[in-house]
Design goal:
By secondary structure, the chain is of the alpha/beta class. Helices cover 35% and strands 30% of the residues. The strands form three sheets. It has a six-stranded mixed sheet, with helices on both faces. A four-stranded antiparallel sheet has the order 4-1-2-14. It has a four-stranded antiparallel sheet with strand order 11-12-10-13, with helices on one face.
Length: 337
């Protein structure tokens, strides 16, 4: 469904020293640098697949989504989405995709959301019967009843986000680019949005690329993830494989029924934290079962849980512990014109 090869997007950025002197110098000798927002990204996504696209701020996630949706033209590389070239922005392609950005809105601020839906119906030439069926489905899943006739500016953030998703998916696109769809929402609303995305994927076999800083979104929806940093792909594979490779240990959380010296706990692994009768020990992944059995047999254990490290920590280790292949040349100074 999506084919990307050696995709690049480079920007030429003007650099100016501060103050009046800096402004005068920029008139005489204008200095620029090339910022490699996306630098040689390659991947493929199968029809119906849901992919988590992760990375820190400025990693190139949104730039990549904009190139896949045709809003930006790549500097170089090959992109195909559903057999179309995005930058051509042909009508069949636009009816095939949608881009939802959690920090942008498409709904008209002073009108009810229902009016924006009717505008989208006209734009995408959706037949009345299909429009009514889709609205009925979305109203049931997202619980839109009672909010569609309110002015958008009077909706809560969660209500507005539900309407934004419904408006973006009215034409039943087969490819969804979702950029931070749950940003700023409370936990309950995040769950509701995730459930809707999963249900839409199931009903229409839609291909989904999801970016989010909430790891719960990714772990709930995506088996495969791509981690990008400084415009380069650092990991592409199963989420479970990333955890196993980047986090070779597991966290054993103990609640003891009697005090035990730290030295004794450290015999089983690295003592991460200790608070009275509670302790966390990081143990090697390959022999977690044996160590857990020894703990239960030799220590006064009242309760024990064994978990993988938080996915946020695993992703963070990639950013802090691994350098992207093109990091050294991420910003190339260019001689002044």
């Amino acid at each position: 469904m999506i084919y990307v090869r050696e995709l690049r997007k480079h920007y030429t950025v003007h650099e100016k020293e501060p103050g009046l002197v800096g402004s005068l110098r920029s008139f005489i000798r204008r200095r620029t640098k090339i910022v490699r927002a996306v630098d040689g990204v390659s991947f493929e996504i199968a029809p119906g697949e849901m992919l988590g696209f992760l990375g820190p701020n400025g990693a190139g996630k949104t730039t990549t989504l904009k190139m896949l949706s045709g809003l930006l033209h790549p500097t170089s590389g090959t992109v195909s989405v559903g057999g179309y070239t995005p930058k051509e922005r042909r009508t069949p392609f636009l009816k095939h995709i949608t881009l939802v950005m959690g920090q942008k809105q498409q709904l008209l601020w002073d009108l009810p959301a229902l009016d924006s839906f009717l505008v989208n119906q006209a734009i995408y030439e959706i037949p009345n019967d299909e429009y009514k069926r889709t609205m009925a489905e979305f109203s049931e899943i997202l619980e839109l009843e009672g909010i569609l006739k309110k002015q958008v500016r009077k909706l809560s953030l969660g209500e507005r986000m539900k309407c934004e998703l419904a408006a973006a998916l009215l034409h039943r696109p087969r490819v969804l680019f979702l950029d931070e769809p749950t940003i700023g929402l409370d936990v309950n609303m995040q769950v509701r949005i995730r459930e809707f995305i999963a249900e839409y994927n199931r009903r229409y076999e839609a291909t989904v690329i999801l970016t989010s800083h909430y790891m719960a979104d990714v772990t709930a929806l995506c088996q495969r993830i791509i981690v990008i940093d400084k415009g380069c792909i650092m990991f592409d594979g199963d989420l479970s494989a990333l955890i196993e490779s980047a986090a070779p240990g597991k966290v054993v959380r103990l609640e003891l029924s009697a005090p035990v010296p730290d030295e004794r706990l450290q015999e089983y692994g690295r003592l991460e934290s200790r608070d009275g009768l509670k302790a966390e020990i990081l143990v090697p992944r390959h022999n977690t079962s044996q160590l857990a059995a020894r703990l239960l047999a030799t220590l006064p254990v009242a309760d024990v849980t064994i978990e993988d490290p938080p996915i946020e920590e695993v992703i963070g280790q990639l950013f802090t512990g691994v350098r992207a292949p093109a990091e050294a040349g991420a910003e190339q100074q260019v001689a002044a014109r």
